[in-house]
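Lab notes, practical 5.
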Amino acid sequence: MYGNKWLILNRVFKCLKLEAMLFEVSNNKKERSDMVKFFTGKEVSNFVKEIHEKMNQEILTLKDSEILTCDFEQWADYLASKYYIEPIKLFENNIDKTMSETKVKRYNHWSRVGSYEPEYYMIDGYCITFVIPFDGNENLLQLQPSTFIMTSFEVASMQRPYNNSCGSFSLEFCYTAQELQGKTDVNEFVESRFKHEFESYRKMINYVNTEIDQYNKGIRSNALQLLDIRKKKAADYVAISQSLNIPMKLSTTAPNIVPLPLKHAVRQPISKPTSKPLPKEYYISDDDYRNIINIIHNACASMEATARTFNKIGEEDIRDFILATLGTHYVNMTTGETFRKVGKTDIHIVFENKAAFIGECKIWHGIKKFEEAIEQLFGYSTWKDTKTALIVFNKENKNFASIQQNVFSWIKSNAKRYEVKNGNIWSCVLHREDTNLDVQVAIALYDITI
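Output from the prediction step:
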């Protein structure tokens, strides 16, 4: 019976001894309520998503005029620099070690046996502090990497980087005097304990840095992608800004023409030091374009009715008659022989020094000269000119129907699409290979033979 009691007590003693040993190992770090815990905050992936979203929000605040004129490469460099996350860099060659006297808290395993025994007691000992300097974004030390070590990471203190000074964090290990005196090489014992503990910190920091490096490598391409998305969202602004409708003023005494209510939308560009003001481009609206062609047709139809008069005059005089007619309908909108990109144009409508409409008057001299006139029309225009007209007069060929057939055959072979009006006007869409743009060309034939 007594043997069984001693066996039970012996087992209790062994359990208490094992518990005390485990406690002493964990208590080698100085126990303090103000200890800082590393790698317990948000996940690294969520942290970089928040940074990415901040960059996106800054891009979204760009005005339409800014995103359309800014240099993407310069902005990508700026954003990559601003939202770059500095990885943690440890300066292990500069680790500082100090020692101070302290009271070491130890667990009293006999407190489990007798109620009169205290649970803890304090023993004279030493606290050895290792101060590890580091540089980089100190917030990374709080993040949880996707790969991690299942243990607790507590530091006695942490100093954030400030101005030109690096930051630091410290690990403290406390031993009783007896624990150190019993070691053959105290320094090797303390260093070994620190290196073993610090290795886990180093691995966790490397895990965090790996994910941060991946983010940093893609930040510039991500910035370019976000800039491109923002620019596409401004597509409606582009259409309005680069194609402001010209406020062409119709004469109130214009005969046989119904004035068209036109609106001129003007958007004031918003200037920013890093952006250029968005230039305004203009165009003739489809309604005005049809109106101008209709006016020209009425003038040319009157020429056909009085062919004996107009057959005797040249291209320049015919052009002047068309200009005079346009001048009775639109106020100060037409000029003749206006110099353009190459050579001269017969009919040229501008607004604020921007091309809006150009037209050419030609006498029929065969299909080859007709094709040259089309090329000449394109040569006069710039890429912003999208509405043009070629007016051809027949003064010599008695077979006007053959001219119509030749022109119609050319149009069917070269126009992307066309529409016949009044029997002798083709409203065509031709594609310019040099500018990769579609151009509206009204081709009109008039017979003034006698």
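Observations recorded by the TA: The first strand starts at residue 36 and ends at 37. Residues 283-447 form one domain.
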